[in-house]
Structure formats: C-alpha cells, structure tokens
Design brief:
With 149 residues, this protein is of the alpha+beta class. The longest helix has 25 residues.
C-alpha cells in the first residue's frame, strides 16, 4: 500500500469555504458523483465527523464502508478504513493551502486504496485517479457555485 495517487486543483474561494464543503458529509451525494449515500455515525467534541458511512460506486470499486476521520487544524483532513465489504484499506486526505492572496485555495487530494479482490495495480491506480479527479472537479464546482455556503 506504499503507492498512492494524488492530484491538486485551485478553487476560487478561501480555504474555510472549501473546508466547509468538504466537512458537510450529508451533501456528498450531491457533488461527488461516486458517493451515493453518506451518514455521519460519530462526531467529536468539536462537532466534526469522526466516523462516516459511505456507499460508493466508482465503476471498478463499489462498496459500503465506514471511514474514521482525523482533522489536522483548519486546513487538512485525513481518513482511514474502519470496515468495508470490498476494501482491505483506504487512506486519503485533503490538504488546503491558501493561494492568490488567500481568496483562492489549492486543494491536494491523496488516496490509496487496497481491495480484497485481486486487481491489477494499474487498474487500481486508474480507479483512484477517477475518484480523485471527479471529487476535485465536483468540489470546485460545488464551492464556486456557492451551493456549499
């Protein structure tokens, strides 16, 4: 699981606006494409989600799984797998960095997926890339449209 896939995009909004959309799990089915259902199972004392159940349909990867989220300040969130039907492991993160004087945000999404069924590495990386690219494009569209406010 050492290899990971990552990509970045610049969004015309401040980091706080971007993180507000990222942390609104209930609305993921409206903009991610691959997430068909999302349910927050546990929240921390700060009100942020700590465990989230997601139903995913990303072509080669279809699953109902639960992820544990760790919040690193206001500009980064990472997650790991708690339980899954199809996945052995999933590790990911969103890192936000101010750009353009703070009114824009560079978002880097990193993802590593390990499935229980045999799958060629190149097919797995392709699935990761599709998930990342669609999520970043959906995030950009959602934030810039103001729908996440």
């Amino acid at each position: 699981m050492a290899e990971h896939t990552s990509s970045s995009i610049t969004i015309d909004a401040a980091p706080a606006e971007v993180m507000r959309v990222i942390s609104d799990f209930a609305r993921y089915p409206e903009w991610t494409g691959e997430v068909k259902e999302a349910e927050v199972l546990a929240t921390g004392a700060d009100g942020r989600a700590e465990q989230v159940r997601l139903v995913l349909d990303a072509g080669a990867i279809k699953d109902d799984h639960t992820l544990a989220y760790t919040w690193h300040g206001a500009d980064e969130v990472s997650w790991t797998l708690v339980k899954s039907q199809m996945l052995r492991a999933i590790d990911g993160s969103y890192r936000l960095a101010p750009a353009g004087g703070g009114d824009r945000t560079e978002v880097t999404y990193q993802l590593t997926v390990d499935v229980k069924i045999p799958m060629l590495g190149m097919i797995k990386r392709k699935a990761e890339k599709v998930i990342i690219d669609r999520a970043l494009a959906g995030l950009k569209k959602r934030v810039e449209s103001g729908a996440g406010a």
